[in-house]
Amino acid sequence: MSPSVPLQEMIRAIRSARTQCEERGVIQRECAAIRAQFRQADNGGRSHNLAKLLYVHMLGYPAHFGQMECVRMIASPRYSEKRVGYLGAMMLLDEKQDASLLITNSIKNDLSNSNQYIQSLALCTLACMGSAEMCRDLAPEIDRLLRASNSYIKKKAALCAVHIVRKVHDLGELFTKAARSLLTEKNHGVVHGAVVLITELCERNSETLERFRKTVPDLVQIMKGLVISGYSPDHDVAGISDPFLQVRILRLLRILGRNNEGASDAMNDLLAQVATNTDSTKTVGNAVLYETVLTVLDIKSESGLRVLAVNILGRFLLNNDRNIRYIAMTSLQKIVGTDHNAVQRHRGTIVDCLKDQDASVKRRALDLSLALVSASNIRSMMKELLSFLSSCPPELRSQTASGIFNAAERYAPSQRWHIDTILHVLTTAGGDVRDETVPNLIQLITNTSELHCYTVHKLYRALLSDISQQPLVQVACWCIGEYGDLLLRGECQETEPVQVTEDDVLDVLETVLQSHMSFPSTRGFALTATMKLSTRITENVDRIRSIVSIYGSCIDVELQQRAVEYNALFKKYDHMRAAVLERMPVIEKNSQGHINGETIKESQTVKVKPGEPQQPANQVCDLLDLLGGSEQPLQPSPALGSTAPPMPVSTANTVGGDLLDLLGGLEPTPITPVATVTVYEKDGVTVTLSCEKQSDSGLTVTLTASNSTESDIRGFTLQAAVPKSVQLHMKAPSGDSLPARGAAKVTQMVVLNNPNKVNLKMRLRISYTSQGSAVQDTVQIDSFPGLGQ
Predict the structure, then answer these.
(1) What is the DSSP track for 19-33?
(2) pTM, full prediction
(3) Exposed/middle/buried for 586, CB within 10 Å: 0-12, 13-18, 19+?
(4) CA distances from 163 to 48, 181, 193, 676 (A)
(5) Class level of CATH domain 676-781
(6) Model confidence over 133-176: pLDDT tens digits?
(7) Any idea what DSSP says for residue 203?
(8) Confidence of residue 495 (pLDDT cuts 50, 70, 90)
(9) GAE domain: which residues (predicted)?
(10) What is the mean pLDDT of residues 276-305?
(11) Are 255 and 199 in contact, with CB atoms under 8 Å apart?
């Protein structure tokens, strides 16, 4: 067969191919010729053929048949063949292939070769694809080369030792002495390799870290020499002397000074000198300054030095390069909890970054702006955040609204300001708020009795202008149903009085009921508000009765059920209508249950008159249904369209007790508080578990998750697994995000049915995303509180 074409001609033929099929044809012909020449015993063009095969490999075509040729060329005494053979080994072989073991002896022989370039080839190959077995066999040779007199070889050996330490941690002790001696070298490449090796050793072993803390003065001297040295053409990059070595030394100093005051004190002066003398007008200088800042913030540095580091990050925020602005805000986000006042000085610059066109910079600026909100700047910061909310991209609206709610709840200067802020958010981005926003706002409005008139007027006007924001519409319907009499009265000192008639209010509620934009839950709010108004107005009761009766045949089952119950209240229990629909009392937070519209675990016992016969349970449940109760007696939960979160059932002197007295005697069993245990607690995420036994085989498990860290957690999911004989049904969670500092919780209900009474166990998988990193963990639950396991 004629010899194959030269490498240059093959490349030219491949590039001139018009189709992929033509390209494959050229490569297949060349590979066939190369394979045939590999089989010849006397082949003078071995390196030439292997070079062409490596080019084919780079194009993504199979070239595995050249592996054995690489092994043969490595064993060749000629340098030209060794060079191509080692290059082929690094590209075609890896530690998982058996062929890699065949070159171990050749590498060992070449490490002892008198030619430094052959030694270099062997070192590079071992550092690139050496397996754990090869590292163990050749580690003594590498340690010997670390003590060689040739700086070129020592540099390569140091980097090869780094690979060995990563592959086999136990071999780190072998290189400790040699690594320390390399710091005295004058050659920058050797010192750079030594610093990288020492960094790797310190990260792998705490005892080695303590031993190398004694080298801090040596590292400080090397760094000072780089900072104050004059122009050196061999190492100068944009006016900075060997910035690569400076960055590596700063990273090592950060590791050595972490949690150690002695080492930190020894490097404080150096860090101050680097921070003040490094030119920040070039990217190279900014890289050194950034590593300096990270080192200052990570060690036990002086307070003045930390302020200097924060000021450097503040200068980064003014840089035109968006990458530099991004890393500055990322670093400030990490220290805002410990150096809040220092970061606060740059608040104006950070807020200006909210207007940046880059989405990543904008998101970082939002996180940092929310972290900077405090009692002293709540008004000015909230003005900026509300302005940002009106123009921010859709993917940031939910995070912005959540952050505003949390800040307003913590630092609100007044209740009216708090309500106005939340209403502003609901008006601007109501469709992007969390599910718990509506019950939270309802509770806030309920607790501020002096603002009921102001709030109902403001919400009524908002409802007239826009009914597309569903959370806002739900809260408005609730307020109109509860405080409609204040709206009709038209007397409000806090806002401009508006004359509203009964027909106007009912027209608005009917518009919400008939709108195609209204959710089923929103219609429930509007229907219940309409029913509540039947006790607060006098002239349009028949119209209300007509509206309610229409929805008795609604296609939505929940809305139909409410309408049927309200019709029954008009007809059968009309004498109780005023008492059932009276204004809701103040809603209190219950530490043993959930807050604002979720289940409350404790109920007070309802007293009944002695001697009276008990009524059948279904009649009691019917009456509780009319009161907005749940399926469980004396444990109300919010029904669809309920105008208020549930409240504990009152004692006999309340309306609920009187109504139950009308039915005769009723002595329910008081519900004992449910025991709660912590099943998972790691990295600021806590998951608690509580159980409630429904029957001999039925069990309801409530999992509650909270986040105590300084950053929000997103994509939070819980997955559960139980033995095969146990039936499991997971209900929809209350949300998929955990706000920072425990501002809100995620609740997941799990219903278990254990007909065979087997020993109950559950495996829980917890998944979430925190600060851009995905986290997944598993926990085994072997005992459940209250079951006697």
Answers:
(1) SHHHHHHHHHHHHHH
(2) 0.63
(3) exposed
(4) 30, 19, 12, 49
(5) mainly beta
(6) 889 999 999 999 998 889 999 999 999 999 999 998 888 888 98
(7) H
(8) low
(9) 672-785
(10) 88
(11) yes
